[in-house]
């Protein structure tokens, strides 16, 4: 509940940009996945940093929870409002503020999506590579430390955020980081806020690294006799210093679904989907070397796609695979696993997960960013069937427990939100208490995205 | 002062591995540069994490300052003991614990130096690329977020540290990070401890990323008509996606000193020294492309060095340049500046610094890692002349003030220590208070490396 006084003050400040309409609240309480709807008490649409600062200061005064919102595409209930409060939707703070081409940097507002940024950059010869499945907001991507298919070459949001402007839980505005490529000037606050899921403050501006649009691009697809053979090829390629821009794995079940529902033409076998970036000569050399390794591992049907249309078709299919898989079982919702393991153990881990899914009552195709050791089982559960949901959660919990035994993590890129909270103590041990101490130091009243990430009182 | 009870308890625990010998204390209070000697009250040499934990817990009980020590090569007085206390020297914790070749990771103890690690790795086909001038300890390098000549391609310590074991200020032992290539599981504590300069705890184990030894290496040297022309070439190359492993700048003054004192054969002009890593074909292509850009910028004498001996000679000269410069003025010590600026402004910034140094009474050759926007003026001051030291500090302060105006940082890789403390408020504004809040949350008694990095009470 937001006290009437606070609602009055917010309304006076924001006019029609404060909403308590039922559909607006419902929209902002909804999750992309299986999480229950948890609406806030109000939603606001600030226009600049100063307004965000005044909103947060007011919420601090009244003890009102503050939840940041980008595009609502988080998978673990990050932006839901389990304790009510005010959702701050950044859709009116979505500008590209400045492109610094020589520094290969861009300043953006948090509501700007990765797609909008790349459209804006098209003519500059530069690009922003991080591509989670959804056209997410850059603020949201920073807050979940998102990545996607290109992290294997370009890194995750941890590597792309050079500097931030942040509104702290008491309304103060700080700047972290600088425009310089590196710094040893104190604690890495930029790195601390990236991945903090809105629990330490609201990001109101991001300075992001850009990369040159590759001179040449080629893609390749190949089928492997086994998951192990595919992973072994990835390991060898990495050790040899090959740097594909994308190394995506799809298992036989995913291949079958893409064939049946999205016009795919895959063998029903484990595949790697690859993309190479560089000069013409470098791309040709890398693709050929990778092809040689794949052939030695028994891979068949190594196909190149240097034509832009063919490539676009391939990656469009890959990017919408989550929705295609979801649609393959009408009426279903998904529990999406997101473990990331040391690459040396990934073959085993995927095969074990596949066996456990096969022994369960629910389908769960597996695909992922295997250059990073990160993969997802899309566990499809009937929306109305609590037994299926429970079975999916058991499978997911088993995969996480195994990943942690192998020295991996519960979440490679989706974040903690509500869905992974129960693994934090097991993953971090006493280090989770240090996270709690940091949370209390920066947000002593606990108003920023309460219920998420740190230990709950 | 360490209370007698505490000394007694430490002695009982450590025997001869606790020292209060005068020369030992002096050695551990000394700086590589102009900073005054500030010895601790005792030095200890623990052998394992459990011992470190017991030492720190004991110091916590008695309120004794604890200062970590690697090789003593920090440039800003990081490991000095302005409030006395106990220096924890990691020379007996210097092992390479485990090489995980498939995961391209290594676990080391903090006292292991980068040189020792690379010797150990030689037969594996892997390498650890970060190379500050000194053969520093990897723990120390992590604590100052060090980099060096190869950061332009491989990144800094921020990018190389996958996971840490840390003894907290109350003696608890935590593990941060995992063996997985990426994670979205909560606050990036690994990133927070990297660069914390021992003010939040003592690192007792590091898991570091490794890289493949390049198949081919070539080096090149070229002289430019102006600093601006050299920097412009670097900017264009970066935008084109060229990824030299090293792009080092030396100004005409540095070239003259290397000629006179270390057998260099440079024109007296600004130079770039480059190294390319990759396949034979990739290295040849990159070097040629870079050569074309340099020629367009008016560079002369583009010389290749594909022979290992010639390359080694070049980089040995570069790595000992600091000491060669120091020796060029007998009896001098150095104030070494370390600003890092947005690359678009670097040409201006270097030229302005050169002009200011030329107008001063002291010599100050400039060299640096210009692919990152980071460069150093080695301001040579007569050890016995306070006026020269004051002039050098004025020059350094002016360079920092200018770097901050340009959106840069006071320190690109050397860290804060004592020498850059007075810039922290100006660089970070209110964000420095957030650093202070984190320090108090993790080290409420302020026993870890007191006097450094955060605001002093």
TrEMBL record, chains A, B:
Annotated EC: 1.1.2.4
Ranges that cross the membrane: none
Class of enzymatic activity (EC top level): oxidoreductase
PROSITE patterns per record: FAD_PCMH
InterPro entries: FAD-bd_oxidored_4_C, FAD-bd_PCMH, FAD-bd_PCMH-like_sf, FAD-bd_PCMH_sub2, FAD-linked_Oxase-like_C, Oxid_FAD_bind_N, Vanillyl_alc_oxidase_C-sub2
Protein's GO biological process: lactate catabolic process
Family matches, as Pfam families: FAD-oxidase_C, FAD_binding_4
Cofactor(s) required, per the database record: FAD
UniProt entry tagged with the keyword Transit peptide: yes
SUPFAM superfamilies: FAD-binding/transporter-associated domain-like (SSF56176), FAD-linked oxidases, C-terminal domain (SSF55103)
Protein name as catalogued: D-lactate dehydrogenase (cytochrome)
Native source organism of the sequence: Jannaschia seohaensis
